Bifunctional protein FolD (Streptacidiphilus fuscans), 292 residues
Amino acid sequence: MVETQDRSQTQPARLMDGTALAGRITRETSAAAADVLRRTGVAPCLATVLVGEDPASVTYLRMKQARCAKAGIESRHVSLPASTSTAELVATITGLSQDPAVHGILLQHPVGPHIDERAAFEAIAPEKDVDGVTMHSFAAMGFGLPGFASCTPGGIMRLLDAYEVDLTGKHAVVVGRSAILGRPVGMLLLGRDATVTYCHSRTVDLPSVVRQADVLVAAVGRPRFIRGEDVKPGAVVIDAGYNPGNVGDVDFESARHRASLITPVPGGVGPMTIAVLLEQTVQAAARQLGLT
Ligand code: NAP
């Protein structure tokens, strides 16, 4: 187990290698996908839905589809015009939820301001919610019940486990409270007996809270927002931020001289998100095909 407070800070932090761990998880997922195909004659299938043509979303989805193909997961892509209404999007997703050939559904965020994104997410059947975006999945994460995790928070927990970080009784500070990242990662940390504090844009004297963190999760979306001088010596630092220029939310160079473990950007949290998405898609397929 990594003891977060006892390490002398004579050396820079160990890096938490998300690329290597994601590679291992994806190799296991590929084997599991091949097993599903061999036993049922059906390959796991992820449906992706994109509204509009936002270039970043197009790139993300292409990347996810390429990774699916490599892992033996079929993908079915539905591209809808930016003018799509909430009712049309809900109808499309409901169709995919009812289609037995589709095992997982990913609605690419954002969908455009005129669409009720929550209504669209809720049209995803819970057993196909491999991106962990429905209220059902959120509640399951909150109650510690089986269900699909939001992919980035799920990936963060896998990283903490791979590096044997002992969370029990540790003070985990999560900076950010978004529905896909900050909030669920805090719930997952709480489920592992950490004492969790959330920080957000209204938090007063944020550095003083950050300085108490044995485990710090930065999910802010502001480049180098967390300064090394505010990192508690020996802390485990998870930088979920991904800002233009491949820069995280933590000032890596200063933080790595105080942390015991730290995720690099890129190559830390980022690769874990897709790895968890693929893994959860194969798990969904295995369950729906009666293998588990
Ligand atoms: P988001 O929805 O914009 O949420 C940002 C959060 O940070 C909000 O809760 C906001 O507080 C808080 N915040 C903003 N400015 C702050 C300040 N000055 N002080 C304290 N808190 C502040 O962002 P997100 O979707 O969670 O993403 C966060 C970061 O993670 C981004 O860099 C994103 O690119 C990255 N990300 C990476 C992955 C991955 O796969 N690696 C996946 C998703 C996101 P309020 O709630 O008060 O507004």
Q: What stands out?
A: The mean pLDDT is 96. DSSP finds ten helices and nine strands in the chain. The radius of gyration is 19 Å.
